[in-house]
Amino acid sequence: MTHTASKPGQTEVWITGIGLATSLGEGLEANWAALSEKRINVDDKGFAPYIVHPLMPVSFDAQIPKKGDQRQMEAWQRIGTYAAGLALDSAGIKGNKDILSKIDMVVAAGGGERDLNVDTGVLTAEAKGANAPGFLNERLMSDLRPTLFLAQLSNLLAGNIAIVHGLGGTSRTFMGEEVAGADAARIALARIASGESDIALVGGSHNGERKDLLVLYEFGDFNLKDKFAPVWARKDHPGFALGSAGAFLVLESKAHAEARGAKPFAKLSSVVADLARRKQPGDMTATLEKLWAKLPKREGKGAIITGATGAEPATSEERGFLKGHSDFPVRSTGTMFGHTMETQFPLGIALAALSISRGALFPPNDSTGTEIEMQGAPTQIVVVGAGHWRGEGMALVEAVG
Amino acid sequence: MTAPRDKLGRPVVVVTGMGIMTSLGAGKADNWAKLVAGESGIRTITRFPVDGLKTTMAGTVDFVNVEPFSSTGLSERMAELVTDEALAQAGIGAKGDFPGPLFLAVAPVEVEWPQRRELGRAVGKPDFTYDDLLRISGGGKYSAYHHRFMFGSVAAYLAETFGTKGSPISLSTACASGATSIQLGVEAIRRGETDAALCVATDGTVNPEALVRFSLLSALSQQNDPPQAASRPFSKNRDGFVMAEGAGALVLESYEAATARGAKILGVIAGCGELTDSFHRTRSSPDGKPIIGCMNKTLADAGMTPDQIDHINAHGTATPENDKMEYNTTSAVFGELLQKIPVTSNKSMVGHTISAAGAVEAIFSLLTLEHQRIPPTINYDTPDPTILFDVVGNKARDARVTAVMSNSFGFGGQNASLILTREPA
């Protein structure tokens, strides 16, 4: 098990900036309001029978002023670059050259957004008999936009963030679906806690409104079809509804934050992750239990925010784990935001920090009784992220002080 | 050997196992023999038709069997083979039980054309839309493709096969990925999280679309005939890089742990550094400051000064811009000293192994330290008069080498450097 936790002598790591652009809206106010009102934004027609949580439209100009930059990106990168800008604004470091020139970036990314017209064009021409040896080559040479490659490359989300917002520190991109988001937070936390880094931008973005992604997940029958239901109410009708979202965090050593007078939303105390073999029923539950035991002691008023997907058997395995901790109120980001893959874990940390800073957990939205009301202010929130196929992560977000 | 801690008080990180595969062959012995002999692994592509392509050669790995074939499958198989080699040399842990985490540099994963075409054929009619493809994708017939084309699939396979600990990290920093995988391992050991780390980098993506993508960005050499002469780092008539496949694996350990178990130490990762260039998606900042900063950070991380570097394993892609920028920035860092530092580019022979390059070249650098012999930069017949490196042209050179700087620069403003030494400073 790999884990990072503040050890004696290591610095506390604060969350001093949050940027959210999701299917519920842009910014902290809009997202919090929608959560409080249990508003969900799903589209069951545009991709029918598949259900997606579409991005609430934003004006990209506000964070990506150059149209030329916007044109160089596909949607997933625009969403992420936008949300990253919001996080920098939230931390009060937007345009601060001294800080941005040294900030360390760890981004969780997918990629590969395709030009569906090109793909369909090639395949239908082949179906009609185009079979010359160089047919595919010639079509790709003439039909692919030269810049599309850069809009597909995983590390070009980080690249675009650096260009648009002027980040000049370091840049690492982690891939690997859901757990990539946990690992990004884990490594950034470890680097700050050990003094290797003072401040980091961490997060991810996802465009769920993509038929090429629906194809990929349909291969494994993972897509939610026909009818929306909260994550916990999908047992007989399993699957995830892809969601569009960008979620970025500014993580900072306490000393660095205090020196510039920055206020924390919360502190990130620990991030742990593992890879359950998932060969036998109970494997994943056992791994989540192990991760739970690795987190620092929880003595405060706790809650759990999970990125449970609604896909099986992972969601049932996770339910098994949650049953052992039924005194913790649970909230599912999958119900409210859909499944945003690499972004789900950073989104969970963001909502944990926001809930702690606002002194309340957002209300449950569930018909099965898995999510219960919470009275009073949470001081410790465990973020859970178990992948639909592989990878498990957990974080502890705590009130400062 | 000396102290288990470096000048900054951190655990010294050493290499105790290495495995490598390139278009030259499998394993360290074969690769090294061919490398110092100046052999090229670049050949005309036979894996798929090249009609209609401007670039028809690459450094493919054609001697590894993968069924059913996919670029990701090839990346995975190569990664497995080089890890086997590295673990056999290191003699660490037990079979299927590596005592540390995995950091894997891997090309971004996506559904590939053979699978897409299979889906297209399965629709069973000449006119269809993308929705028709989507409609027939489910039902379990293609579930293996879901598993194959997860970004984390290669790392998960390696982690399960070799029993690495914790959550394996799959990373991409474009052409710097291999160096980043090593850097992540070094940092984990320095922080004291682990005594050992497995750093693997692999790239098997010579496929039609990947070739077209780089072609459309005018990044590839078009000197197809003869293919062996296509990759011309630092030459006046260089015209782009040559795509290539390969993999490298390194077992990293703390000096203390390695010596405690009596392991043979192959070299030291003395320093790592990275610095982002926010100038442009594919071009370096014209003033070269991010690359200069990257090299300086790496020297500082190693606690070394430029006069202590006696060889540079260059990024040396053979694109017109890279090689010029690399010379300008390197000379800014090393000044007058540069005249006395032999420089070489392994890419002249093995091509650009993209996601694997940083690890492949780190391994070649460590072999250079071991053999005290610098592999040549082949095809160096017409030196670029504006690039005043002491290029090890065409023939290997015996030299006293104690510290090598290995550089990697990638799309998206990714710069990473490593300093490798024979013994702890």
CATH superfamily of the largest domain in chain A: Thiolase/Chalcone synthase
What helical percentage do the residues of chain A reach? 25-40%
**If you average the pLDDT of chain B, what whole number results?**
97
- Terminal CA distance of chain A: 29 Å
Structural class of chain B: alpha/beta
Oligomer: heterodimer
Low-confidence stretches of chain B: none
The fraction of residues in strands of chain A falls at 15-25%
User: How far is the first residue's CA from the last residue's CA of chain B?
Assistant: 9 Å
The main β sheet of chain B shows up as:
12 strands, mixed
Biggest β-sheet strands, sense, barrel of chain A: 12 strands, mixed
Structural summary, described in words:
The complex is a heterodimer of chains A (401) and B (425). Chain A is built from 15 helices and twelve strands. Chain A is of the alpha/beta class and 401 residues long. In chain A, strands 1, 2, 3, 4, 5, 6, 7, 8, 9, 10, 11 and 12 form a twelve-stranded mixed β-sheet that branches. In chain A, helix 3 crosses helix 8 and helix 12 (283-294) crosses helix 13. Chain A is globular. The mean pLDDT of chain A is 96. Chain B is α/β, with parallel strands linked by helices and 425 residues long. Chain B has two domains: 13-112 and 149-421, 3-Layer(aba) Sandwich (Peroxisomal Thiolase, Chain A, domain 1); 113-147, no CATH class. Helix content of chain B is 33%, strand content 18%. Chain B has helices spanning 28-36, 71-90, 113-123, 130-135, 143-148, 153-162, 177-190, 208-216, 255-260, 289-302, 320-334, 347-350, 357-371, and strands spanning 13-22, 25-26, 43-44, 57-58, 102-106, 169-172, 196-203, 246-254, 267-274, 311-313, 342-344, 373-374, 390-391, 397-398, 403-410, 414-421. In chain B, a hairpin with a 3-residue loop joins strand 15 and strand 16 (414-421). Chain B starts with 12 loop residues before the first strand and ends with a strand. The mean pLDDT of chain B is 97. The chains are: A alpha/beta (401), B alpha/beta (425). At the A-B interface, strand 1, helix 5, helix 6, helix 7 and helix 8 of A face helix 3, helix 4, helix 5, helix 6 and strand 6 of B. Strand 5 of chain A pairs antiparallel with strand 6 of chain B, so a sheet runs across the interface.
